[in-house]
Every structure is written in C-alpha cells, then in structure tokens.
Write a structure and sequence with these properties.
234 residues; alpha/beta; Rossmann fold; SIR2/SIRT2 'Small Domain'; 9 helices; 9 strands; binds zinc ion
Length: 234
C-alpha cells in the first residue's frame, strides 16, 4: 500500500518519548505518582495552588531537559531530510525531543514544557529554568502559567491542524493510545479525504479499527524500518 506521497502527517504521542525514559500520566511510578493529575493539569488546580503546579512542571522540565531523542525521533528527521514530500509532525508531547532530533514542522498541540504564558497579555516566555510563582511577565507584570493545555482546554493550532489533516495523503500515528480526543479522531478526518492511515504502537491502540494498517512493536525498532520502506517511494 506504500507509494509516493505528497503530504505526510505524523501524529506522535507518549509512546515515542517513553523510550527516551520519560514517564507518562498512566505510568504507575515516577513523578506523576507524587502529584494529583487533576490538580497539576487543570486550570482550577493552578488557580488554587500555583506554587505546587509550578513545582511539578519545574521537576518535569528538569527531566525533559535531560532526555535525549531516540532512534524513532531521529528516523523522522532522516525522512524529512531525504524526502520531497511535505512532512509535518503533530505532537501531543510537551517535551522537545523532536526539536532536539532537529526535526522541522513540529506542532505542539498540548504545549511545550519550556514555555510559560502570561495569563494577562498572553506573552510567551521560554525557559528551561525553574519558575517561581512570584516571577512575573516582563511586559505587563501579569502572572505566568505553564503554556500547557490543561484538561478541558482547547488544543493549540486547531485551524492549522485541520488543514493538515484535510490535505494529508498519508497519516501515521506513532505511540499514541488512541484514547485522548481530539487527537484520537484525527485518523477519521484523514480517512474522510481518502488518505492512507497507519498506526505504530507498542500494543494495539484503542482506535485501531480506524486505521488501514496497524504495526505493533517497540517504536524505536518499528519506525526506522517503516521509514526505510517509505523512503524507497519518496
Ligand atoms: Zn503579560
């Protein structure tokens, strides 16, 4: 089913970063276990206890700063550098491993760990340093929150994502469980426009029936092999 594609969209989730040692919400150990996800990933939780939420993201930022991209991230960069197709990466991950792997066209729909946003003027501040509640926006002195999409908030870049999905002739979901909307529905948007849809995941994703092809296995192994096959046609 592989052929020459013009517009390829990848969707990446926690599974691609897990092999770089980053734990996820669902892991039973690690940083997430010490905090209540309902508190650190909600606007209500931030408003009630901003210093606790900053403390959590400070620890997470430190872990993510130290993490290194794995062979799956590097394979995507390799494809971008050796293909004539337009290749976009939509990521649910807040780490910057795609950027560390020197990938281009990365869309962080859930935000980035190295960004904070002024709740007053919207100005983005980039930092890898710990952030304290009393550090304020340098433009308006407003309070800063993590530039992370909390539970119940809209994803970032929504109109652009819709356009990419509508135009894609190949959509590949990598390391994403298929349980978190709206990302879990992206595959259906692509199928409506007859794009080929493929999922690579450790186990079958929850929405596996929506895909044309599902490849199970360790992503750091399956993705480089898949990219090599894909490159024959590009
Ligand atoms: Zn401001």
């Amino acid at each position: 089913m592989l052929r020459k594609f013009r517009k390829i969209v990848f969707l990446t989730g926690a599974g691609i970063s897990a092999e770089s040692g980053l734990a996820t919400f669902r892991d039973t150990n690690g940083l997430w276990n010490n905090y209540d996800a309902e508190v650190v990933a909600s606007l209500h939780g931030f408003q009630a206890n901003p210093s606790l939420v900053h403390q959590f993201y400070n620890e997470l930022r430190k872990q993510m700063f130290a993490a290194q991209p794995n062979s799956a991230h590097l394979a995507l960069t390799h494809l971008q550098q050796h293909s004539h197709a337009d290749i976009q990466i939509i990521t649910q991950n807040i780490d910057t491993l795609h950027e560390k792997a020197l990938s281009q066209n990365v869309w962080h729909i859930h935000g980035q760990i190295n960004q904070l946003r002024c709740i007053n003027c919207g100005k983005i501040t980039e930092t890898w340093e710990p952030w304290a509640e009393n550090h304020r926006c340098c433009s308006c002195f407003g309070e800063l929150r993590p530039n992370i999409v909390f539970f119940g908030e809209e994803i970032f870049f929504s109109p652009k994502i819709e356009q990419l999905l509508n135009e894609a002739d190949l959509f590949v979901a990598i390391g994403t469980s298929g349980t978190i909307p709206p990302a879990s529905t992206f595959v259906c948007d692509v199928r409506q426009h007859s794009g080929l849809t493929i999922a690579l995941n450790l186990e079958k994703p929850a929405n596996y029936r929506d895909f044309d092809i599902v490849i199970n296995g360790q992503i750091s192994k399956t993705l480089p092999r898949f990219i090599e096959k894909l490159l024959i046609y590009q």
